[in-house]
Amino acid sequence: MNPTGQTALQLRDIHLPAEPGFWPPAPGWWLLAALLLALLVWAARIGLRHYRLHRQRQRLLARLDALTQADDTITPEALAEISILLRRLALMRYPRQQVAALTGSQWLRFLDETSNSDRFSQGPGQVLAMGPYQPALSDDVDATALGALVHDWIKKNTGAH
After folding, report:
1. What is the 3-state secondary structure (H, E, C) of the chain?
2. Which of 92, 138, 142, 149 has the largest CB neighbor count within 10 A?
3. Structural domain count of the chain
């Protein structure tokens, strides 16, 4: 047989398939996008929580400074407001059943336990137990020491390090 005698085969040239399109992405990219979105939502929640705690701490500390630095004297009304600030923060941070019914020396022991000291029941914080209920305070109330003690308790219990 003579190859020249055969009819020429009608072959076409090799054509490569078209490049894959950008859209829709492969399943792995969808999974990566979902994981990144979940990570972004988680980071936003953590950031918002830290922002709120920081803002709350700043407001509490500003109010405390206003109460304790008026003229280095503390009135029974200021003591009552300091105690209210502490109780509000304690109710936000600890179980209501543990905090709500505490008064007097039990309240001071709770503050001692949550500050890892004894400065509320044995130090300048003693005035918080009965001070708000007395018509006039004695001059031995150390406003600066009380302010520093409450300041430290607020920072410890709002997550400041």
Report:
1. CCCCCCCCCCCCCCCCCCCCCCCCCCHHHHHHHHHHHHHHHHHHHHHHHHHHHHHHHHHHHHHHHHHHCCCCCCCHHHHHHHHHHHHHHHHHHCCHHHHCCCCHHHHHHHHHHHHCCCCCCCCHHHHHHHHHHCCCCCCCCCHHHHHHHHHHHHHHHCCCC
2. 149
3. 1
